[in-house]
């Protein structure tokens, strides 16, 4: 419990009390307890199955919430009984992170509240009484409203836990949650409605179970996709760790460039899929340095023209390394072109302006920003204000002004809290002058114009 902030404990406790009140039997309500028990056991079984090992691996976390069963309960039972269906299965579900009982309590409470709210709306809009069969097509309106309320309730509760437990700013905590949850809840809602129709048909509950077969197959396919994606991500992590070990001057740089790329992408209004691609592009932008001799990456003096030509091959090396990772998509173009310049003075191909892929223009700005605001062995980090000023000065020649503006606005809104890479022993000192700049600094796209300063605390542009 110590890992859960106090305000998150209070929030979860309040949600749990509300969930318990919703699941308590309402006066005068007489649900079919046989149906409640069967749906409860069915949902708990789905939780256990999706948490079991499949061919030596676990189904990814998050697939255990089997909404068709819960929404079938919404269409078949009174609100309090529909809320009760989720509780035992959620309390017994597998949890991978600490503290497990807090997470189980939270999951059970949020599902109970969402099911209760959607069942209330379903009944209020003319949905058939508990135990009565849905009447097509008139039931579609109440059922659709119930699905919307179910998704909205989950969104509202999840945003609250992001604010209290994860300390996400309130103005951004709910951004994008509802659209992401609505699509799967709608599909599961149709399956739940089919279950309710078959449940009250002459064929009975046994026929309703047939609906779960295609849903189970789809969940299995979804699990396969996530396992493949997890394997790719593990490969990406290994590549990044290899680069960090080889190039000690830029340890942690890749992750921060990925973070800055996400800030720019979100500020530009890109959809979640493209944001994810930009994150991978930022993380992997320097993976081609694995093909560069280590002595050049760690050189403590100026690069010769021949050595610079070797360094400038790393975008092409990186592009070749990741070309077989299918889900990276346009991230491969960012890896290849993140050192191109708007005026055509970059490499490897000297592209200009709109010829440079948009994703590469994003990563170029993120890369330069982190290079300037990170402490290296031969210089201190520049303040955020100085780095932003330098980006603006180079906008139009080195960088796309649109990307620079997006990063500037994002920094003003969220600030920047880098993990300064100061784990490398200081070399060269103040007396080394220009000879203290190794190969990594010479590869940076922005010439040093602002005098170096002591490493600052995290600040927002325009503040001290």
TrEMBL record:
The chain crosses the membrane at residues 66-93, 105-125, 145-165, 177-199, 205-223. Residues 455-464 have a biased composition (Pro residues). Gene3D superfamilies: Hypothetical protein af1432. Residues 228-423 form the HD-GYP domain. GO terms for molecular function: hydrolase activity. Pfam families: HD_5. Residues 420-464 are annotated as: Disordered. Residues 250-372 form the HD domain. InterPro entries: Cyclic_di-GMP/3'3'-cGAMP_PDE, HD/PDEase_dom, HD_domain, HD_GYP_dom, HDIG_dom. The keyword Membrane applies. Residues 428-439 have a biased composition (Gly residues). Residues 1-23 form the signal peptide. Keywords: Hydrolase, Membrane, Signal, Transmembrane, Transmembrane helix. PANTHER family: CYCLIC DI-GMP PHOSPHODIESTERASE TM_0186-RELATED, LIPOPROTEIN. This is Metal-dependent phosphohydrolase.
